[in-house]
Amino acid sequence: MIDFKEYLSYYRDVVDKEVAGYFYPIDIVMMYAILQYLQNNMSGDICEIGIAECKSAISLSNFKYADDNLYLYDIFSEENVATVENNLKKFGRCDNITLRLQDSTKLTVEDIDFKQKLKLLHIDGCHEHEAVFSDLVVFS
């Protein structure tokens, strides 16, 4: 388990300075609480929709069990993929991570396949109502 003070200082002093994107202090605190609860109470896959340079995905990767899978959905360019992979290698844990270069709003239920039950879905892709609703319906 990652100590709360270490987690906050790691993001403030290391990750925030080197990884572009938005993962505000209140987001960091809430994510810590959610992930700590999940880590202590269940196993299962984790999914994030909308990765950018993977600022929040780093946190997800550091909290998952070794046998949990982390699925990262976004519309990546080759440059984005390289940045995400480099940031995960530098700041996170890279085991059992799948990058899916797909527009989540164009997916159907049949397109979604997790190895285990999904324990956390972090939606941070398109922020329009219709897109978020679509992600909730398809990924549920």
Gyration radius, rounded: 14 Å
The count of helical stretches stands at 5
Q: How much of the sequence is in beta strands?
A: 15-25%
User: Which H/E pattern describes the elements?
Assistant: HHEHEHEEH
User: Fraction of residues in helices?
Assistant: 40-55%
Number of strands: 4
Uncertain residue segments? none
Largest sheet: 4 strands, parallel
Rounded to the nearest angstrom, the distance between the terminal CA atoms is 28 Å
Read across the widest sheet, the strand sequence of neighbours is 3-2-1-4
Gross morphology is globular
On the 0 to 100 scale, the average pLDDT is 92
**Structural class from helices and strands?**
alpha/beta
